[in-house]
Amino acid sequence: MTLKITMPGEQSGSTFSQLRLFLCFLMYCWVLADPVCGYFLKNCTIRGNLSDPSNMKVLCEKRNLEVVPKDIPRKVSVLNVAMNNISKIGKLDFKGLSNLKILNMSRNQISSVDDGSLSHLEALQELGLAHNRLTILSDHLFQGLANLSLLHLDNNLITTISSSSFQPLSSLKTVNLTKNNLHNMKEVQPIVQLPHLQELYIGSNRFTSFQSQEISNTSIELRLLDLSRNPLGIFRITADVLPYLEVLDIAYCGQLGHMEWDVLDRSFLSNVKRLNLSGIEMSLERMGMVLQTVNSSLVHLRLYDISEERVKALTDIACHIPTLSLLRLHHNNISVLSKEFLQSCKQLTEMDVCDNNINQLSELLFRSMEQLSTLKLGHNRLSSMPKATRNLPTLKILDLSFNIIHELGCPDFANLTGLTQLFLFHNQISNLPECVFQDLKELRILKLGSNKILTLNDAFMSGLPKLEYLSMSYNKLSSISKGDFKGLASLKTLLLFDNQIASLEDGAFEGLVNLTELRLQSNKITQTDIRNTVLTGLPLLRTLDISCNYITYVNDDKLDPPPFSHLTSLENLQIHSQRHKGLCHLPINFLEGLKSLLAFKAGNLNIKDLHPNTFIHTPRLWYLDVSKNEFTALTPKLFHPTPRLNRMYLSKARLQSLDFLVGANLSRVTFLQVSKNDITVVNETVFRSLPALTYLDMQDNPFTCGCSDAWFVQWMESDNQTQIVGAGEFTCNYPADLKDTKLLDVELQFCIVHLGLYYYISTTCLVLLTLIASFAYHFLKWQVIYGYYLFLAFLYDTKQRNKLTPHGCQYDAFISYNAHDEPWVLRELLPELEGEQGWKLCLHHRDFQPGKPIIDNIMDGIYGSRKTICVISHRYLESEWCSREIQVASFRLFDEQKDVLILVFLEEIPTHQLSPYHRMRKLVKRRTYLSWPRAGEQTGVFWQQLRLALETKDGSAEENPILSGVQAL
Ligand SMILES: *[C@@H]1O[C@H](CO)[C@@H](O)[C@H](O)[C@H]1NC(C)=O
Ligand SMILES: *[C@@H]1O[C@H](CO)[C@@H](O)[C@H](O)[C@H]1NC(C)=O
Ligand SMILES: *[C@@H]1O[C@H](CO)[C@@H](O)[C@H](O)[C@H]1NC(C)=O
């Protein structure tokens, strides 16, 4: 049993809740009709375009994800969920991503992958599962990945590889299983048997032996085998299973004891070109055997961490291999490179002895290497330029970086006429003699960064005719004088950042006619150095970076002359982050002359205002970064001269609204970043004025989360052209009770639905009403008309009653009749009642005041008479009964409980014909009416009764003796 508690007003309450239910239903229909297809991902960013799936990337790395996001667009071709906390891959995680080519899940906590969860990825070519917690590769793990060619499984805990798990990977070329817990070479067997496998990385596992019969009986395709850092006790090849092997890495093997080398036939490894024997625990004698095995093919030998003694012996053996051309000897603590060391290495083209302790080189060391083209001596302890590196006309690349060289002398690079690249960065060089580079006629790249150079000393006034790239960053230059780079006519890139440059002379860069890139950031340059007489003679300059200096302006007044007026080719200007105070003001004509400018980076400058004419000189501007300033507001006029603007960075600029984008002529903007501002509300017109927008970053704004944001929310969820970055993280700031709630979690649909729903409901109601009305009219015509007049009468009655408070009545009776019955009224009724009985009657054709509205006349007539006599005939019922006056009178009759109405039936009317006229029927039923006698009958009684009826004073009709039961039809 249910106990029902009845509350007062429950009746209306339940009606209300029914109404609500109905409204909800209507809204549900409305919402269903509106397809929601959001173009933002809660935890990821999309690169590329939704409409061009071939290069669409979805990037979700480093978001603390615990599961694979559910809202990945189906057409994605690259998906990166690396560096999260995902521990499990579910069966449906990648469902439908049939276009995916690259999937990176590295650096998570994945320990389990459901069977078949990757089988949806038919197109996958590269799969990253490195740095996870996988222990077993099960039978069905890689099911369906027939196109996979690259598989990263390194840095897991894999101990077991099921025998059929790799079977589906018929296109696999490369597998990385480095750093796992594999110990049995048999586990690897199914992998090496794959028809296209070329590279197998199984270093840093627990293999204790490598025996060819464990992996195959027949020859396999493998080109690269990395076995490094396994505790291999033996490397044994008893059959020619690796005929194509080119790269063999057995570095740091044999750590559990000296490693055996047992290759039955020297022809078994006859294709090996690259060999890494670094740090191997193996007797010198056996290492010699290894080298003998590959002595017909070896090109590239790496011998790190071998110790100085052994490396000398091995170098000697290796250099007898005629094919050897590259020798790398890092980490061998070599301090002196003597002539004997490299005696037999005549054929080498590259010698790499970086990362040793070399402080001495015998003078003629490299003289015998007549093909030497690359010499790497970086990360050693050379304190001066070695003589050994002079007079090597074949040398092309010389690397002396990370030494402790103090000075350069004029003969130091003598006769290096073929040198194209010289690396001297990270030394202690403080001087540059004028003649030092004079022989380097072919030099293209010179890196002198991170030294202690104080002045340029005319070093670049002549020589170096082909130099294209000069880096002098991180030095101690304090000024650039006129013509300092005069000799560098081919120079394209000049890097002078991170010096102490505080003064630029007029003509400082003259002669650099081919310079395209000049970087002067992080110096001590001030606004006085930024003159058009300094920045001249650079006809091809495309990039100028003067950020992080001390440039500042006290107002935005015109500069005369404008600083960049000669840089007509400049495309990219960076002045952001001026130190100390910031630029503060951007002079109106600061950019004058930069007619090619495409990108302007002027963030972090403490600018409060931009003059509307700031960009009138830069019509091609494409990229604008004025983030981290103090604008609060910008004017649309600012952007009128830049119709090509495409990318706008305006984050952290204290903007309070985006209204300046409206009418700003920004139809080509595709990228807008306005994160970290004070924007509370975004309205529709803003995005209407950015029709090309595809990327919007509005993170960290204090959203209001009221109905004013409803449009924005709806737009975010439905627009599929613009990606809204981090939309899921937009947070409310107001109202207080929603603070820190996510904007998308706030129920704002009601606001947006409001208008639409309103239209929807009203249209529905209108349609329903029309339907009902036409039905009613068709089937219940008279009832409807009657009802209508009844309603109007009610209104009038109410009105008249207020207006006409009872005063003396003007007439005894108001006669209501149909025009067809007028003859009877004039011939019979009028003479009898006015002539014989002496009543005063009100007849509309006679007594209505001309000029007064007819309805008022009628009302006055009825309310000014004691009684109303209705002369009823068929015609009367069809027209007058429904008319207002009669209804008003009947209202008066019932409401005032007064007997004002006298019905006189001229004809016989059957009851059923009366049925539409509800009140009339009620009266007739109560027999309160008079009938005009039929033809030939006496009229005396009728007139008598009528007189009595007219004589009756006000009172209840029920009590009236005359009208109660006097006559019957
Ligand atoms: C986004 O990441 C959070 C935290 O891991 C998670 O709770 C939420 O479900 C993710 N959203 C989607 C759509 O995957
Ligand atoms: C294989 O994995 C190791 C260890 O993570 C890494 O150092 C190496 O670069 C990887 N090699 C390739 C080809 O991916
Ligand atoms: C440069 O080479 C020439 C010709 O071989 C030789 O005469 C000259 O001494 C060399 N210069 C230096 C500084 O070694």
TrEMBL record:
GO terms for biological process: inflammatory response; innate immune response; signal transduction. GO terms for cellular component: plasma membrane. The gene is LOC100136121. Residues 1-33 form the signal peptide. Keywords: Glycoprotein, Immunity, Inflammatory response, Innate immunity, Leucine-rich repeat, Membrane, Receptor, Repeat, Signal, Transmembrane, Transmembrane helix. The chain crosses the membrane at residues 757-780. InterPro entries: Cys-rich_flank_reg_C, Leu-rich_rpt, Leu-rich_rpt_typical-subtyp, LRR_dom_sf, TIR_dom, Toll_tir_struct_dom_sf. It is a single-pass type I membrane protein. It is found in: Membrane. Residues 809-950 form the TIR domain. Pfam families: LRR_8, TIR. Belongs to the Toll-like receptor family. The lineage of its organism: Eukaryota, Metazoa, Chordata, Craniata, Vertebrata. This is TIR domain-containing protein. One of its GO terms (molecular function) is signaling receptor activity.
